[in-house]
Design goal:
The protein has 225 residues and is α+β, with helices and mostly antiparallel strands. It contains three helices and twelve strands, in the order H-E-E-E-E-E-E-H-E-E-E-E-E-E-H. Strands 1, 2, 5, 9 and 12 form a five-stranded antiparallel β-sheet that branches. Strands 3, 6, 7, 8 and 11 form a five-stranded antiparallel β-sheet that branches. A two-stranded parallel sheet has the order 4-10. Helix 1 (2-12) runs antiparallel to helix 3 (196-223). The longest helix has 28 residues, at 196-223. The two termini are 22 Å apart.
Length: 225
């Protein structure tokens, strides 16, 4: 009894909701840089409604491990910094054009903070984790929509920079970084209204299912000892 009633209620409510949202995402684990990663996101199906807005969020994570060697005979005050710059592109030209304008799209920075290195020592710091995200909510909707839906790819790559402040050239710096990227797309849309005949037909199917269930229940009741 419960299932046919719920089915009927859901069918009757199809045309009652004026707007919908859909969220899709992917995420890649960190790997040694330089990275070349990608992921798939779904396109909006233009057959189901009118796409009102798109919110694309790009995100990246990184970890930096620093190895510092003081080659001098005296202590040195230093600060080591890493910068992981992430660049995104897409298999869809319209989306890629917007992403190409972001140089870089994300900048992940990590720092050891001020350090005092003893003479002739080698010290390792990290991994130091960093992350950043970027929300793009003023993008044109047309590149994200096509009849029948489908999917598109996002690609991300990176470049690394390292910096050492202090040390008077007596300190050497070795840096190992890992990075991973991901993205989320959210579609805000207004569904096409269900026509009156289609709505009536859907409700009729629900009623038929409910009546059939009632008849089966009555037959079972009558045949019971």
């Amino acid at each position: 009894m419960i299932k046919p009633v719920l089915t009927l209620a859901l069918m009757a409510g199809i045309a009652a909701v004026p707007a919908h949202g859909a969220s899709l995402s992917f995420s890649n684990a960190e790997s040694l840089t330089p990275i070349s990663q990608d992921g798939l996101l779904a396109l909006f199906d233009a057959n189901i409604g009118i796409l009102q807005g798109v919110r694309l969020t790009l995100f990246g994570t990184g970890s930096s491990s620093f190895t510092l060697t003081n080659n001098a005979g005296s202590s040195q005050d230093v600060t080591a910094t890493s910068r992981i710059q992430m660049y995104f592109s897409s298999s869809r030209p319209g989306i890629s054009a917007a992403l190409d304008a972001l140089v870089p799209a994300l900048l992940l920075e990590a720092s050891t903070g001020p350090l005092l290195l003893a003479p002739g020592t080698t010290s390792t710091f990290g991994p130091i984790v960093s992350s950043q995200s970027l929300v793009l909510d003023t993008l044109a909707t047309s590149p994200f929509s096509q009849s029948g839906g489908g999917s598109f790819s996002l690609y991300c790559e990176n470049s690394d920079e390292k910096r050492l402040d202090g040390g008077n050239t007596a300190v050497s710096l070795s840096l190992v970084t890992q990075a991973g990227c991901g993205a989320t797309v959210v579609y805000d849309y207004t569904p096409y209204p269900v026509s009156e005949p289609a709505t009536v037909a859907l409700i009729g199917l629900g009623v038929m299912g409910l009546l059939a269930s009632l008849r089966r229940t009555r037959r079972i009741t009558r045949s019971a000892p």
